[in-house]
Amino acid sequence: MTTDAPWLIAGLGNPGPWFRLTRHNAGFLTVDRLAERHGARFRRRGIGSVVAEIEVDGRPVLLAKPLWFTINQSGRPVAGLMRRYSVPVERLVVVQDDLDFAYGTGKLKRGGGPGGHNGVRSVGDVLGTRDFVRLRFGIGRPPKGQSVGDYVLKKFSDEELTAMPGVLERCADALETLVRLGLNRAQDALNVSA
User: Fold this and answer.
1) What CATH number does residue 17 fall under?
2) Which pLDDT tens digit goes with each residue over 75-90?
3) How many domains does the chain divide into?
4) Can 24 be counted among the known catalytic residues?
5) What is the per-residue pLDDT across 115-132, written as a single tens digit (0 to 9) for each?
6) Are 42 and 63 spatial neighbours (Cβ–Cβ below 8 Å)?
7) Residues comprising the binding site for tRNA?
8) Which residue among 91, 136, 152, 180 has its CA within the 20 to 30 Å range from the CA of 158?
9) What residues bind tRNA, as annotated (predicted)?
């Protein structure tokens, strides 16, 4: 890996305004917050993606939102951006919603299975490896009687939306720490036990 290779932080979500504040779009919301911090705008780039370019302490970082039909087909656009910008897998970060963590909590880790998240599965399948970093944004479990599919496609509750700015700030802080200081330091700042 060359030291000047960019980072690619890909937030997963579903395209379209209706999905904007749904739980499945936690990844989009996180990269949106990072772009806002740096005054960057998303522009269409590559195969089915919009990209914003920022720098973190002089290090180039691409923020991406794959827009390939649905979140479940995120792998092709992510792989296309990695090829276009010569991003090694060690510098790929995928931001996903995660049912295994309570809302407002999360975890950074490298590798591991997709945990039932089809967007993460798609990225791993297309790349042929799961050795990338994931920021798992906790959304909690659905209430009894509600399917997972319905739950992740519902909008965040009013209470969750009230807490959202602080949650997004913590995620953005952790991602910037990852770029600046590495995974271990970023994990210390964000990780919680399941």
Assistant:
1) 3.40.50.1470
2) 889 999 999 999 999 9
3) 1
4) yes
5) 778 788 888 888 899 999
6) yes
7) 19, 69, 72, 118
8) 136
9) 19, 69, 72, 118
